[in-house]
């Protein structure tokens, strides 16, 4: 049988194999591999049964770590970094560079108005929520002006709101707010008052400030704003509606009782948005290259916003002018909370990561600087400073495991109460709030409960616990017009509502 003829490709392949073998033979590669294998076997045979201790490296030796950003590697940002807050985010370690104001501005697109329908990501139709807010808002406006209103293209005028710097809110509902001590032992958590409102960690929680509806609004780390209409009928679904107006953690929510159709939200992305239910939009009212960590409004002024921007700046935004009217450097690090005294709306309190909480008089401006009335120092970051309902006391919460109570005519009396405040990386920091009078302070604990502190005895007098709580409540709000109704929010997106038996 004749041998099969090789193709040109097969013939060249055999020639290449022969050349490679000749090259390996000339270099004696195979013999060296055999010698190396034999040496390795001898070394293994001589190895003892215990492990040799590794040689200690010199302390002066510095490891070389090469880091490349996702952008440099040609990769898109992942979910853990695109939202501006990693899952392992620890608020106690977040720092703003002291020279942040000297850093070059970052160029990023400025987003405009977002319609409510475009921002909505819920499963239920949100028309019922919108109609409910509008009806309650109109009723609240009429009650605050004695049934007389003056409408303008932008809503209600200052006359209709009925406010001035010297007259307080001008709203009977606010002036007649119920006060009085309650029996904290009677606060209970019913299973129907538990709901998961948004995905992920809740950063802010607020009750709608009205007695005509029980609705909670929260902001989470992903930029979601969620509503829970607790009074929703069964045929309306679960009463939960979720929107996405922001791209990073929602740092604050501001609502006024006489203008419920408008809600401000601030965000770590440097945006402040106004949710205008009448226009059905999320308007962009302010943008910054720096993060915004807190937001608030004076109880007698719906036209101005006070917010903490970047490394310790307090900015005041005027709606009439459409721009910032004042800016003050109040702290060396970020401002975590801003609050106003109900007794005198010119008195403001701020808390900061620089380890201090300060009380300011807005009437005392000297050379474009605010003068501090009192500064309370902690050993670590201070994450909240809230006035009591009467405005005569201030409660501070710090990561140094202290809840401070400041009182006295000139805020000269300071008491420090020990409370374990180490929440770690996965849970939002604790922020102690006042209840419905100056008697009690509520703060979460790491045992899935709520500690009740007495401002009189200056210690923990009770702990609220329930089998229905599956997570640690860390952010709270007390309903301003329903005594005994307390909302607690968790890092898992749940909201718990305690009520009186």
TrEMBL record:
It holds the Pfam family WD40. GO terms for molecular function: DNA binding. This is WD repeat-containing protein 76. Belongs to the WD repeat DDB2/WDR76 family. It comes from Ilex paraguariensis. One of its GO terms (biological process) is DNA damage response. The lineage of its organism: Eukaryota, Viridiplantae, Streptophyta, Embryophyta, Tracheophyta. SUPFAM superfamilies: WD40 repeat-like (SSF50978). It comes from the Eukaryota. Residues 28-62 are annotated as: Disordered. InterPro entries: WD40/YVTN_repeat-like_dom_sf, WD40_repeat_CS, WD40_repeat_dom_sf, WD40_rpt, WD_repeat_DNA-damage-binding. Keywords: DNA damage, DNA-binding, Repeat, WD repeat. WD repeats lie at residues 328-363. Specifically binds 5-hydroxymethylcytosine (5hmC), suggesting that it acts as a specific reader of 5hmC.
